[in-house]
């Protein structure tokens, strides 16, 4: 890689502010090496993410590397380290010579930079070839002393070996470098029988050195654990676990193939023949790799079915994830029950933690932290509730599968229980649920408190109280804006500022609730009668469920019971007077022009409706006033009153139905015409009882509250014909009496 130092900058740099000149220093080099126009750099630094990476490199001592690459789309992208560069892209690297923040004066001294080609591995290959040519061509070192040649050869071999290992690491493989002068090793392996097991000490030394180095490499590979990201404080998803075991299997398979190669077998034979103390280590190394390969293969096979499930969870809309949770946990249980190497608490806990992280990630994308508190409250609340249902479903599904693991037992193969603490799995998950519950509480509070805008109080002091409510509404709107207009991520569990703001929000809401409770008590006391009182309670509605409002309102609920009891007593008094007057007159007291039975039933129904309407409103109130002992007595009194009215209606109706058929038939059988003995005049003999019957049926049919006797209905259906007959007879008799 070409490396250059910065020269002096032109006058344009001097004209810029000090804080900008460092960025211009970087920009000039990037534009020079990558041969792009100024507008590309402007677009790069306009990105908040890129600008932050650049600023961190300039200001933070611990940030020692910077890579600015040209993406396939022709855009410049800043990254913190070389590994962040996408393969096949051009890039410029910057490295600090020491841990320090950069100033305009120290940029040239403290920085090393250069151009990185699109394929860095080609450089390693070129260096490898160059070293080969340097050492293999004897004309390059004819004048070197023998000791120098050997020393250079060893250093070149060490460098080639390092390049070989690094090239493998870049590709994600572990490559085991062979010892120096391996031709001599192969020759010694061929001659071992002739020499009676004697091997040159220098060859054994090189083989033992190789075993030591391989052991170090393989030990490092075997020590790598998939929980690394989690232990570093990151929040990996199941993709990390699945990819880890896929790569581990591929890497161990490559190592196993290298150890099983004929060249390595020859090394083993030589070590065994020489009775080297490193031969057991060599054998154990092979056994450890074989065991680790078997483990990785088993785990990779059993984790493969989970890959599709996790990919579906990531691609689908979050509300649809609920149908994926059951199959996912079922598959996890199958892995636990059947895999010989993945059925350990440590590995299952890790997989479940990463699954929790995936659900948290998907929930955050669904809720959109920047919008959840700023959008329509009812819509946001619906999304929050959906989110909670899915997260809690995963929690309950886990518990269900844990309890029913015995279902996965096959052919006498015992399934180990999940006897680890759920806290190990759900620590972060539960914290996230608690954060969602906090947001839900904020939204529920807003949903209640924003109703203050439409709350208008009547009665004598209504105007003054309504003005106070309006002030409370404005105060809450300002309080709500205080927490919704903050730029932070409210779903970030590390965001302590949000937690502090929630505490302030709750304190202000508590104060508003206390004052609202006082306003309710004043409005309640100002109402006269049951209906206005119920209207006040109904108007406040769900606001009365707010804890501090309810604390004040609870003292007024017994008064509501008292008012309703007075209403019942009033209705009972009306009933008693009606019954007494009916007994005195011998017939029910009814409204004008109403027949006795239909009128009596209408009166009972209207009184029942009066009680029922108020009682239904009373029961619909959110207040617990009817649950008290006094409330229970009032309910008994209400039911007693309803029974009295039902009994009255039933008695009136049954008395009428028992006599209507017989009396109607009797009146129909009377002569059509009767003569007055005194005046000798005749008249139509149409009984008033039949007229009353027709009126009763007419009103009862209109009310549709009771069944009409068949005889009465038959007469009523022929009313038109009967009235026509009566009219004709009236005309005839009128002419006759003249």
From TrEMBL:
<feature type="domain" description="Dynein heavy chain tail">
    <location>
        <begin position="204"/>
        <end position="738"/>
    </location>
</feature>
<dbReference type="GO" id="GO:0005858">
    <property type="term" value="C:axonemal dynein complex"/>
</dbReference>
<dbReference type="GO" id="GO:0051959">
    <property type="term" value="F:dynein light intermediate chain binding"/>
</dbReference>
<dbReference type="GO" id="GO:0045505">
    <property type="term" value="F:dynein intermediate chain binding"/>
</dbReference>
<protein>
    <recommendedName>
        <fullName>Dynein heavy chain tail domain-containing protein</fullName>
    </recommendedName>
</protein>
<dbReference type="InterPro" id="IPR026983">
    <property type="entry name" value="DHC"/>
</dbReference>
<dbReference type="Pfam" id="PF08385">
    <property type="entry name" value="DHC_N1"/>
</dbReference>
<dbReference type="GO" id="GO:0007018">
    <property type="term" value="P:microtubule-based movement"/>
</dbReference>
<dbReference type="InterPro" id="IPR013594">
    <property type="entry name" value="Dynein_heavy_tail"/>
</dbReference>
